[in-house]
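Render this sequence as a predicted structure.
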Amino acid sequence: MTVRVGILTVSDRSSRGERKDESGPTIERILTERSEYAIVTTAIVPDDRELIENKLIEWCDENGIDLILTTGGTGFGPRDVTPEATRDVIEREAPGFPEAMRMDGFRKTPHALLSRGIAGIRGRTLIINLPGSPTAVTEGLTLILPALPHAVAIVHGENADHKFHKAGKGGS
């Protein structure tokens, strides 16, 4: 089975066309290199908590997305509200993903600790906040990628040994 993915870029400037989105396409490139992922929708929204929430809810509840990866809006800036919007729509948190990304990033730069991204589950959808820079997106996504098929399988209530899960990789 293929993991259906939505990529949500959160950026005031990119949503207004003032800056090209590089992080969303970076996520798309990384995932399309792997056969188990299908990008089914992408969007760019401004740093607006209600707009972010509405898009996440739509993708989870109406579009049947398995995995939503957000990029941007996770820092300390006054308009960085992606974690709050995500927390408002999830039912359960999945703290291991952002914890691993922050710790791995911290080995490269202390600025990784400024990421407030979270992860969680709404219904049958796993939502993970990635940072906004293409470099941080690449490093973070590459780090967590091996765990994603297993996580999605569990969220779907599947036996993790089939469908999304690759034999011999990981456990629960």
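Summary. The CA atoms of residues 105 and 139 lie 8 Å apart. Residues 162-172 have pLDDT under 50 and may be disordered.
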